[in-house]
Amino acid sequence: MSAATATLTPADLQGADAPIPLRAHLRHTGALVRRNLLWIRQDPESMFDAILFPVVFTLLFVYVFGGSIGQSLGGGQEAYVQYVVPGLLAMTGMNMAQGVGTGFNQDFNSGVMDRFRSLPIGRGSVLFAKIAVELMRMLFATGVLVIVAVLVGFDITSWPGLLASVGLSAAFGFALMWVFITLGVTMKSAQSVQAMGFLVLMPLQFGSSIFAPTASMPGWLRGFTEFNPLSALADAARGLMIGGPVAHGLWVTLAWSVGLTAVMAPISIHKFRTKS
Amino acid sequence: MGGGSVSGMTRIDNNPGGAPRAVTVRGLVKHYGETKALDGVDLDVREGTVMGVLGPNGAGKTTLVRILSTLIVPDAGRATVAGHDVVREPRRLRRVIGLTGQYASVDEKLAGWENLYIIGRLLDLPRKASRARADELLERFSLTEAARRPVGTYSGGMRRRLDLAASMIGRPAVLFLDEPTTGLDPRTRNEVWDEVKSMVGEGVTVLLTTQYMEEAEQLASELTVVDRGKVIATGGIEELKARVGGRALRVRPADPVQLRPLAHALDQLGITGLAGTVVDTERRSVLVPVLSDEQLTAVVGAVTARGITLSSISTELPSLDEVFLSLTGHRAGAPQDAVPTDHTLEEVAV
């Protein structure tokens, strides 16, 4: 055996494994997108959360808390609608991230991922297909949110701002996705991935400026909310959609996104590759 | 390109002057923390044959299949499949293998047809060819009627047949079947066996893992017995069966009180194979490994001579436990020097 190894040149090793052409990558990703879409057709309930999240959260926050929080904003419920809708919109990217992680976990547990990994396809295809479908789900949820928001009185002052907010929410979602992929690959069940996501995201979401202005919070909590990237994201979305300062929130969000990706992407890819 | 020369060299190197080998494994090691799942495994599968890998749970069978199908990377040693190295040429290797098993599976939410079509597309078949291949394989595995139903509604046997169909889409040169019938009822198991046999008839090389001697005997021409990450025996199936003691004769006296006298009488015949005579108190019978029809007749003669009345007599294949007992002197998965803890089977001193 050593004789064979000795006669191998570096060029042999480099060319030894068949590379996958870009067109084949696209074809594989397309086939996997088809698979993920068929999942939704087969199990339409999986779209419920994409509809329920914007409907329930919008109605709940606007009608339950809207009046009282609105007063502190110097208006009423109408003022609160303008305040909270950009925050809710910022959250859709996080749901996307969670969807990718849970989906990976399900595919590993059912053995389907092993089937894919034993096929001559790039492993990135599986990821891209999952992202594509979760992105569609996110855009669908965003569409529902905008409709409900307008029905409860949201005033869209800037369409470009709205689109930019969706983009920013997705960008942060992509970064957070690496965290959820790591959870999805390492945790035992999809339920625990969801529970873990809930445990981590819930305090971050409520301890931020998404639902309420932070001015009235106690000092220690305000310190937390100022450091919390979700505050920056919500503030930037708010600035873009209804006017106000954008730059600070935008840069902080982008910096967090880059940082999270730089740290978590290599970890999750390593976990994915070495998953036994 | 280097691919051809690499595979050429590997094959020549590992197989000087012999028949072409579809799978070559040398000194394969895989650890999981302290546990040695594979502890230096050597294995050869010749082209067009069926190699059975027999062993208890935790013997390392699945780890072996997962390394050979590139799902995990070994810690040491080398393995090639159809001339492709598992570590250096995983993509080339994946193109020539099929995998069906405990883990690699089909998508429950999708219809059977969709499962096969998507795998065809992932194997670079054009749309039309992928459709045709899906139809063809569904027909072949008698799943045409269920083609459009979600796999979640399939019975265990249908699901396993779809699994086999899925692994055949790329017309693999080497097929890995990891415990293909575990959890199936006997009738369904026979169905799956028939399918595997017909696949072998088409010339595909198969490496099959199993916990059942019967399954190995049905499907495999050669057998490798593994235990705790090590190969403990390898050879032709007839050869190993002879070493194990061929068949076991289950003799049941009408009166359970006669169990021990019966076992004693049979021991005195001196015909028993390596495993020795075993008293199965739970099923109130004595198991005698026999090698030939003459020995079978001698057993019946000895029973008659002692005037023991029998309620039944039947032949069985040796169980995995008996195989291990005769090959290694200890029970499957048990430490070498451990006292058997199984209370229903007790060995009679020979």
Structure description:
The complex is a heterodimer of chains A (276) and B (350). Chain A is elongated and about 65 Å long. With 276 residues, chain A is mainly α. Chain A has twelve helices and no strands. Chain B folds into two domains: 2-241, P-loop containing nucleotide triphosphate hydrolases (Rossmann fold, 3-Layer(aba) Sandwich); 245-347, Alpha-Beta Plaits. Chain B has twelve helices and 15 strands. Chain B has helices spanning 2-14, 61-68, 90-95, 112-122, 127-140, 156-168, 186-201, 213-219, 237-244, 259-269, 293-306, 320-328, and strands at residues 21-32, 35-46, 50-54, 76-81, 84-85, 97-100, 174-178, 205-210, 222-227, 230-236, 247-253, 278-280, 285-290, 310-316, 345-347. In chain B, the strands form three sheets. Chain B has a six-stranded mixed beta sheet with strand order 6-7-8-3-9-10, with helices on both faces. In chain B, strands 14-11-13-12-15 form a five-stranded antiparallel beta sheet, covered by helices on one side. In chain B, strands 2-1-4-5 form a four-stranded antiparallel beta sheet, with helices on both faces. Chain B is globular and about 75 Å long.
Give the gist of this structure.
The complex is a heterodimer of chains A (276) and B (350). With 276 residues, chain A is an all-alpha fold.
How many distinct folded domains of chain B? 2
Please provide the count of β strands of chain A. 0
Question: Using only CA atoms, what is the Rg of chain B?
Answer: 23 Å
CATH class of the largest domain in chain B: Alpha Beta
User: What share of the residues of chain A lie within helices?
Assistant: over 70%
Residues in β-strands, percent of chain B: 25-35%
Show the helix and strand layout.
The complex is a heterodimer of chains A (276) and B (350).
Chain A: H1 2-7, H2 10-16, H3 22-42, H4 48-72, H5 77-110, H6 112-117, H7 123-151, H8 159-186, H9 190-206, H10 219-227, H11 229-242, H12 247-274
Chain B: H1 2-14, E1 21-32, E2 35-46, E3 50-54, H2 61-68, E4 76-81, E5 84-85, H3 90-95, E6 97-100, H4 112-122, H5 127-140, H6 156-168, E7 174-178, H7 186-201, E8 205-210, H8 213-219, E9 222-227, E10 230-236, H9 237-244, E11 247-253, H10 259-269, E12 278-280, E13 285-290, H11 293-306, E14 310-316, H12 320-328, E15 345-347
Parallel strand pairs in B: 3-8, 3-9, 6-7, 7-8
Antiparallel strand pairs in B: 1-2, 1-4, 4-5, 9-10, 11-13, 11-14, 12-13, 12-15
